[in-house]
Write a structure and sequence with these properties.
It comes from Chrysotila carterae. The chain is an alpha+beta fold. It has helices spanning 81-86, 137-142, 145-161, 192-198, 204-223, 271-274, 282-297, 309-318, 331-339, 355-359, 369-373, 411-416, 418-422, and strands at residues 26-27, 104-112, 116-123, 129-136, 170-175, 179-184, 226-227, 236-238, 244-246, 253-254, 261-262.
């Protein structure tokens, strides 16, 4: 007899501990005779902490309160949901202002991971605040240098292509003798993970807002032939107005067929990745279904109640979704089932209609997609900020320089990877 529904609930989220990627980017060999499956609709190298800052700036001043209304989207207004889902903006639509590295003043540390940290930075000339991702060259090359350098270049290339209101903007990259830098938008609302951690579950209108925003962000990524591969609440930031910004593109990769690298976070990985069959954009839609379930039920659908990753993986491979009697016939439950189909050939988002199939689902009936993408829809939660550098929604660390220990790397190895470092200098 199966356990009661409430017995499936894992331990409560810890707001101080983000879920980590346990795969460590292990390259899987393509199985002999593996069949390629074309994409039917073109539409961190380390622990998965926030390694890309985020969002809309409060103002061009170092002080002052939050503005009363949202700023226009960085890519201009879009008039239809389908256009919003697949729009690929031209580089000319991007922000052109790029502060000089000498004008950047590093403030508090916002987050740290294996060989990188993210800090609040202020441009002394414009007095605008940014999120500055700082990557130690020596730590980057300390282990698996070829893999880590390749992934860092992929992250840079991906961010340079992105231009979407729900994806973090990259303003520029830099290099000095010790570090590489990504200058990104600052999202002062913190992680969606922390919002979920404060609540047992979300109301459906709030979940619809966040899932709808992520649907459009994923559609934009997929239209550019990228697969994100690490969708989870820790990688979704909220900007100063409460709109999402998808960040941390350390695992994002341009994929036309499939990729066989094992990466991701246990609760959200797809069954095809666990089977070593390779993944493509379909894996992102699976993760979106997991996230929708988590928002409305209070915990991910396949996570083992006792925290065993192996049992979680077994649950994912079976793909058995459990719903309470009250939720079983809800339209959102049907959407979860369609997104979390074990068979890729029947997974919503990867069918012939692509993202438009998700947008057209009954759970989104009469939803104002145009208002969402143009940022005129009111977010379900808005951060209360007192200034353009209010970091109350982050666990700020003062020991920014001590978080990433120096690695023992030879000068010869540093010289070997100098072409990689040069790519960060315009």
């Amino acid at each position: 007899m199966p356990p009661p529904f409430d017995a499936l609930r894992p331990e409560a989220r810890s707001l101080s501990t983000s879920r980590s990627n346990v795969f460590r980017s292990l390259s899987a060999v393509k199985p002999p005779g593996a069949q390629s499956q074309p994409h039917s609709a073109k539409t961190s190298l380390n622990n998965s902490v926030i390694l890309s800052g985020p969002n809309q700036l409060l103002s061009n001043s170092s002080s002052g309160g939050a503005p009363a209304s949202a700023a226009p989207t960085p890519c201009g207004p879009l008039t239809a949901a389908a256009a919003a889902a697949t729009a690929i903006s031209k580089p000319s639509a991007r922000a052109v202002y790029r502060p000089s590295v000498s004008s950047l003043e590093v403030r508090q540390l916002l987050g740290a991971g294996g060989f990188a940290r993210v800090a609040l930075a202020r441009d002394c000339e414009s007095r605008i605040f940014y999120a500055l991702k700082i990557v130690s060259k020596r730590s980057l090359l300390a282990t698996k240098p070829e893999l880590h350098a390749e992934c860092l270049l992929r992250e840079k290339a991906c961010l340079e292509e992105m231009c979407h209101p729900f994806i973090v903007k990259l303003f520029g990259t830099y290099a000095d003798p010790e570090n590489l830098y990504f200058l990104c938008e600052l999202a002062l609302g913190g992680e969606l993970f922390r919002v979920l951690g404060r609540l047992e579950k979300l109301p459906q209108p709030a979940a619809r807002f966040y899932i709808g925003s992520l649907t459009l962000a994923l559609a934009h990524l997929h239209a550019l032939e990228y697969v994100y591969r690490d969708l989870k609440p820790e990688n979704v930031l909220l900007d100063n107005f409460g709109f999402i910004k998808l960040c941390d593109f350390g695992f994002a990769k341009k994929v036309v067929d499939r990729t066989y690298t094992q990466c991701g976070t246990p609760d959200y990985v797809s069954p095809e990745m666990l089977r070593g069959q390779g993944v493509n954009q379909a894996a992102d839609w699976w993760a979106l279904g997991v996230l929708l379930y988590e928002m409305l039920v209070g915990f991910p659908p396949f996570t083992d109640a006792k925290g065993s990753d192996l049992k979680t993986f077994s649950n994912i491979l079976r793909g058995e979704l459990r719903f309470s009697e009250a939720d079983r016939q809800e339209s959102w439950a049907r959407l979860v089932k369609s997104l979390c189909s074990v068979r890729i050939a029947s997974r919503l988002g990867y069918l012939k209609g692509g993202a438009e199939d998700v947008i057209s689902h009954s759970w989104f009936r009469n939803y104002s997609w145009e208002s969402l993408v143009n940022r005129t829809l009111e977010p379900p939660w808005q951060p209360r900020l007192e200034s353009a550098h209010d970091v109350r929604y982050f666990e700020v660390e003062d020991n920014a320089r001590d978080m990433i220990p120096d690695a023992d790397v030879s000068e010869e190895l540093l010289a070997q990877y100098q072409p990689v470092f040069d790519a960060f200098v315009l």
